[in-house]
Specification:
This protein is an alpha+beta fold and 362 residues long. The protein has two domains: 5-181, Elastase, domain 1; 188-348, Orthogonal Bundle (Neutral Protease, domain 2), CATH 1.10.390. Helix content is 42%, strand content 9%. It is built from eleven helices and ten strands. The protein has helices at residues 15-24, 27-48, 55-60, 97-116, 166-181, 188-210, 268-271, 277-290, 298-306, 317-332, 337-348, and strands at 10-11, 70-74, 84-88, 129-133, 142-144, 149-151, 220-221, 236-237, 246-247, 251-252. The strands form three sheets. The protein has a six-stranded mixed β-sheet with strand order 1-5-6-4-2-3, with helices on one face. A two-stranded antiparallel ribbon has the order 7-8. Strands 9-10 form a two-stranded antiparallel ribbon. A hairpin with a 3-residue loop joins strand 9 and strand 10 (251-252). Helix 5 crosses helix 6, helix 6 runs parallel beside helix 8 and helix 8 packs antiparallel against helix 11. The longest helix is centred in the middle third of the chain and has 23 residues, at 188-210. The radius of gyration is 19 Å and the shape is globular. The model is unreliable at 1-7 and 44-60 (pLDDT under 50).
Length: 362
Amino acid sequence: MPCPHRCSIFCILPPHILSHIARAGRAKQRQAALQTLAIDQTFRALRAARLVGPEGVRAALAAAPGVKRRTISSAGHQEVLPGEPVRREGEPASGDPAVDEAYDGLGHTWDLFNEVFGRDSIDDEGMALHATVHYGQAYDNAFWNGQQMVFGDGDGELFNRFTIAVDIIAHELGHGVTEDEGGLVYLFQPGALNEHLSDVWGALVKQKVLGQTAQEADWLIGAGLFTDAVRGRALRSMKAPGTAYDDPLLGKDPQPDHMKRYVRTYQDNGGVHINSGIPNRAFYLAATSLGGYAWEKAGRIWYETLRDPRLRANTGFRRFASLTIDRAGFLYGANSVEQKAVREAWRQVGIGIGPGAAAPEA
């Protein structure tokens, strides 16, 4: 039985992709996929037993309010955490792309939450940011384990290194923000919202780094992760869920873009990486309708919704949509252009909430 969010690690690569490769890939590709699935399952079991991370890592996460503190370690292609520190806050670039991309990605994510939302690191209490790169042999994933980031180098045939895209880094760190603020259980619709929110944070960090408006952005999550051997642009498309990839080894992007195509499954904790396409599309529609930089209005509405005390651990799509509409009204006024844009975005993905609908009670 799938375990709730407190027993989960949050991986960027959905298990359905790895399972497809394990069935259809060549021997080396199958081995890498199966090994990655085994490692992911092991970490879930460790976290369930509260055994993730040595005491040294916990000590390094101590709060330092208002100060950015990053430490990048290398596992040296072993399955060890945290590994050997190779770059700390303020030190010059190492020349190792994975190390420097992780360092920069952690910083860009910290900057978005601090500069845009006034948040002091992941826990809003100055948590230090730690990441381990070069984890394992041909490890095809990246994850947040509740304390730190972990990045594999990929198999080099289907996947590049998992530090290559800043939105992957921000997505995984964003799970820490969602876990701290909303505690959405990692199952079915609440779990899909958990994944959706991380895609939102990933997209916003990427767009802010590139200086892109909502209209200019590509709204792809994980562009650059696939090698040229894969028929695909990215892991997901928030603009057009279901179109990110269509490859003989990875399968076809299964994300729906409307409630009419909602996928009912017990795999992947109830389809958390699949059905997140529906709220992803709603956010894209709201952000592009509002115009300008997506983090200014749409991002603010979604962030304040995450922090709303009425958000429960088991919140589903409809309740979340209602809360975003309510938050838009609180921030910009009842029946404002912003509130109407958010309401219309949800309506277009099959979640209609009328103007007279009451906001969820606390």
